[in-house]
Every structure is written in C-alpha cells, then in structure tokens.
Design a protein that fits this description.
The structure is a single chain. By secondary structure, the protein is mostly beta strands. It has 2 domains: 1-39, Single Sheet (N-terminal domain of TfIIb); 59-112, SH3 Domains (SH3 type barrels, Roll). It has 1 helix and 11 strands. It has one helix at 34-38, and strands spanning 16-18, 21-23, 30-32, 60-62, 66-67, 74-75, 80-81, 85-86, 93-97, 101-105, 110-112. A 3-stranded antiparallel β-sheet has the order 1-2-3. A 3-stranded antiparallel β-sheet has the order 7-4-11, with no helix packed on it. The longest helix is centred in the first third of the chain and has 5 residues, at 34-38. The mean pLDDT is 87. It comes from Thiohalophilus thiocyanatoxydans. InterPro entries: YjdM (IPR004624), YjdM_C (IPR013988), YjdM_N (IPR013987). This is Protein PhnA. Residues 4-32 form the Protein YjdM N-terminal domain. Pfam families: YjdM, Zn_Ribbon_YjdM.
C-alpha cells in the first residue's frame, strides 16, 4: 500500500518519496518526511523563513524592512517580536510590536530568535 501522505499544498494523491523529501508532481511542492509526524492534528505547522516550526509564545526577528499599511512607519530588519500568536490566514502571526502596536505578519518574513 501507498503510505505517502497527500500534498499539504494542493491535496494531490500522486505524491512520491524522494530520499528524505516528499514531492508533489502536480504543484512541485516539496516537504521533509519528518514534517508529517510533526502534524498531530489537522492544524498546519507554521514555519519561519529558515524552515523552523513556530509555536504560540515564541520570539521572532524580522528579516527585511516591512512597510506598515496606513502609516508612514516601517518595521526595520532585526526588530525582535516577543510572544507571538499563530492564527489562520495569509498573515499567520499576530503580535504586538513596540512603537507600532498590534499587527499581523507573514511567517516568511521572520526567523525564530
């Protein structure tokens, strides 16, 4: 039997195992074999720019300047954000940044501190 999980990106059943990675031939998404064991429930694992899993309460650093919509301020590179909260959606990190206030960030623009 085929014990390879479906693609978490598109849901395709045609995924295959290539060394230590799973590969989806339909959307070209690749993910590590150990990522499947990390997902114990239906909630997807949120990863930072380096591929580290993020959890509620973690601290992260911003890896590039981010413009704040509706304001003339910018979140600078290296800004440390403490006590993040993971949420569903496009911007999957909910946080409070000193000097700016409450905002949502995308996990691809942060790294675990």
């Amino acid at each position: 039997m085929n014990d390879v999980p479906p693609c978490p990106n598109c849901g395709s059943q045609f995924t295959y195992e290539d060394q230590s990675m799973y590969v989806c031939p339909e959307c070209a998404h690749e993910w590590p074999n150990d990522a499947v064991e990390a997902q114990t429930d239906d909630k997807p694992v949120v990863r930072d720019a380096n591929g580290n899993a993020l959890h509620d309460g973690d601290s992260v650093k911003v890896i590039r300047d981010l413009k704040v919509k509706g304001a003339s301020s910018v979140v600078k590179v290296g800004t440390k954000v403490k006590n993040i909260r993971l949420v569903d959606g496009d911007h999957d990190i909910d946080c409070k940044i000193d000097g700016i206030g409450a905002m949502q960030l995308k996990s691809e623009f942060v790294k675990k501190a």
